Amino acid sequence: MQHFDQSELLKQLPKQFFASLVEKVGKSLEKGHDLINLGQGNPDQPTPAHIVDALQQAASNPKYHRYSPFRGYSFLKEAIVQFYKREYGVNLDPEKEVAILFGGKAGLVEIPLCLLNPGDVALVPDPGYPDYWSGIALARAKMEMMPLRQENHFLPDYRELSPTVLEKASVMFLNYPNNPTGAVATESFFAETVSLAEKYGICVVHDFAYGAIGFDGKKPISFLQIDGAKEVGVEIYTFSKTYNMAGWRIGFAVGNEHVIEALNLLQDHLYVSLFGAIQEAAAVALLSSQQCVRELVALYERRRNTLIGALREIGWEVKAPAGSFFAWLPVPKPFTSEQFADLLLEQAHVVVAPGIGFGAHGEGYVRVGLLAEEERLKEAATRIGRLKLFG
Ligand SMILES: Cc1ncc(COP(=O)(O)O)c(C=O)c1O
């Protein structure tokens, strides 16, 4: 077979850190171990029945068997506008300020291709969701890391960034509720972000993937709720977490109309929008009762309380996340995050994600997903307790 070399573009993509974890997990499963896998971010609940029903009905509509309009159906963009108005009091223009995406990830990877030239600089949270790195690498742009520190509630401290870096930066990625730390943003932090973005001409890309998941009765705020935000940025929303639709691949970007136009333009060249029936079911998700979302958040909150309680009982001093479906747990001495994750896999058959996979400032932590039944979360804590690492 003839060998075809990969392009230079592909060769310079960042290595997928978590691929090696997936391999280790596979090997352990082959040995027949009863693993409790809390290492991934894959929602474990099904899509609510009324949304699946809407897809089933829409799938038989011949209208949707033809090509969809290039930039998506207007009914979905109208539904998104209503959703943002209802949930956040934010006004949007459906044709100019909304772009339909094949999931949040697609938009996050497309943004650097839309806005950055080779050598341009993007600011990225560290620790952070690794897919930001992918789009930046595809655009042959450069990353400057913004450390997220516990003492600053895992918000970047902009005073740590030099004016030279800020002058050079064209894009900034933020993500609250945060993967991997579970932190949430405050209004004052977002307001400071808008001022900084105005001053330095930076486009803020707020990844609101966990927007629906806030605990203790606190609803996470949208970046677009802040005065001036729409002028300096966009927010990326996904159906994956709010409605357990990760396999459906649908999300959207809202905000600054120039960025929305750039995304739509790039997508005109890449795709012909999503299957119309998926768009119809997505509109149903946004416009029908949100009781399913409230129940989902309550489920994650119960799991959070169970897990955090059980970990504290074994002597592990952990903080409860305020949002997202992750807990960010400090690694005991003398382990690195990877050594500790390996130890838990080998000796407790519990899978966690080592913090270093999310960036250098993720070292010292592991990420645990609240994506298993409460009994399994308790069992995970019991197994870890047997290793006698704490207290
Ligand atoms: C922080 C963050 N952003 C975006 C996404 C992308 O979600 P999707 O592409 O399914 O919309 C994820 C998924 O895990 C995520 O954790």
Polypeptide structure, described:
The structure is a single chain. The chain has helices spanning 8-11, 18-30, 49-59, 74-88, 104-115, 131-138, 163-168, 187-200, 229-232, 239-242, 257-270, 276-287, 291-313, 337-348, 374-385; strands at 36-37, 98-101, 121-126, 142-147, 169-175, 203-207, 233-238, 251-255, 326-330, 350-351, 353-354, 365-369. It is an alpha/beta fold and 391 residues long. It has a seven-stranded mixed β-sheet, sandwiched between helices. α13 packs parallel to α15 (374-385). The longest helix has 23 residues, at 291-313. The model has no long low-confidence stretch (mean pLDDT 97). The structure holds pyridoxal-5'-phosphate (PLP).
Spans of at least 5 consecutive residues with low confidence = none
How much is the average pLDDT?
A: 97
Per DSSP, what share of the residues sits in E-state strands of 2 or more residues?
5-15%
Total of DSSP H or I helical runs spanning 4+ residues = 15
Main sheet properties: 7 strands, mixed
| Radius of gyration computed on alpha carbons | 21 Å
What share of residues is helical? Answer: 40-55%
Strand order of the largest sheet: 2-8-7-6-5-3-4
Q: How would you spell out the order of helices and strands? A: HHEHHEHEHEHEHEHEHEHHHEHEEEH
Number of strands: 12
